[in-house]
Write a structure and sequence with these properties.
The protein has helices at 12-23, 49-55, 83-89, 102-110, 122-142, 160-171, 183-192, 202-205, 223-232, 250-255, 266-270, 272-287; strands spanning 4-8, 27-31, 43-45, 58-61, 94-97, 114-117, 152-156, 175-180, 195-198, 211-214, 237-240, 259-262. By secondary structure, it is an alpha/beta fold.
């Protein structure tokens, strides 16, 4: 295996991944993380993307690769990094990142850049749920003035995140309601002992809850539902875990003075070392 690898932007998960790789003997060439100080001789900060391309066939970037489809997700860079320009510098290389938009994949193909999306790996996707759920509960604790125990929590969506989040909330003593559309999911909600909320009856149930967690990446809490919350329960806290643009009308929520937190990239914020280890395991499968 080639022991040189590139790091291009990314959050703390990718920073810790660079440290792990360097400790295991890789020569790590980085760009877009200038504002993070490393103390490992195996980690080289490059002044251009082209320099990484010169030494490395495989370049790792962030999860997601980009938040807006224009610039790389690079919170530790000293300037914005344009994706189109970057792809032109990675001709005949392999770019490994996560949650890569289709239009970026198409542009990469034009520039003869092989793309590998980490989040298409089922194992990594599942393992990422654990820090996401822990982070969501941490945010709830930090933004409310009561315990999770005996609080009333509503989870919108009963997919992977919704299932584990509901379970952990129940373990902490919360009264848990779960909203879903499909009869199969509603049956599982009943079987698990949570309060069942069909999406068609959501308006009637909203006012009952202290904390609402959204996991659905489409507009669920629109103006109509936020107005219900405004009139019925001014102390509710909404934590949106869905990817951009989220599932909440954030403009209306602010107007109605409803506390709303859009929590993105939680694995990289609350457990970057653990998340980096998960990425490393997935990376090894890809490179092998």
């Amino acid at each position: 295996m080639n022991k040189s690898i590139g790091i291009l932007g990314g959050d703390l998960r990718i920073i810790y991944l660079a440290k792990i790789l360097a400790k295991e003997g890789y020569n790590v060439y980085t760009y877009g993380i200038e504002n993070y100080k490393f103390f490992n001789s195996n980690i080289v900060k490059c002044k251009t993307v082209n320099k990484i391309s010169e030494f490395c066939n495989n370049i790792i970037s962030g999860i997601p690769l980009s938040k807006d489809g224009i610039f790389l997700n690079a919170p530790f860079a000293d300037k914005k990094i344009d994706i189109s320009s970057t792809l032109k510098e990675l001709n005949n290389k392999t770019l490994i990142a996560g949650a890569i938009k289709e239009e970026i994949k198409e542009e990469a193909s034009i520039n003869k850049v092989d793309i590998m999306d980490l989040m298409e790996d089922e194992g990594l996707t599942i393992m990422n749920i654990i820090p996401t759920v822990e982070g969501a509960i941490q945010i709830a604790m930090e933004n409310t003035e009561f315990t999770i125990h005996n609080s009333k929590c509503l989870v919108l969506g009963f997919g992977r995140i919704g299932k584990l989040l509901s379970k952990q909330l129940r373990c902490l003593g919360a009264n848990v309601g779960c909203m879903a559309r499909k009869e199969k999911d509603l049956a599982w909600i009943r079987a698990c002992g949570y309060k069942e909320v069909h999406i068609d009856n959501l308006n009637k149930s909203l006012y009952e809850y202290d904390i609402i967690f959204n996991t659905i990446p489409s507009l669920i809490l629109d103006n109509e539902k936020l107005e219900i919350l405004k009139n019925k329960n001014t102390n509710v806290t909404i934590i949106d875990l869905a990817s951009n643009p989220g599932g909440v009308d954030f403009v209306r929520a602010k107007e109605y003075n409803i506390k709303t937190i859009h929590s993105l990239g939680l694995p990289g914020k609350v457990a970057p070392i653990t998340a980096a280890k998960y990425i490393k395991e997935t990376l090894e499968k890809i490179l092998n």
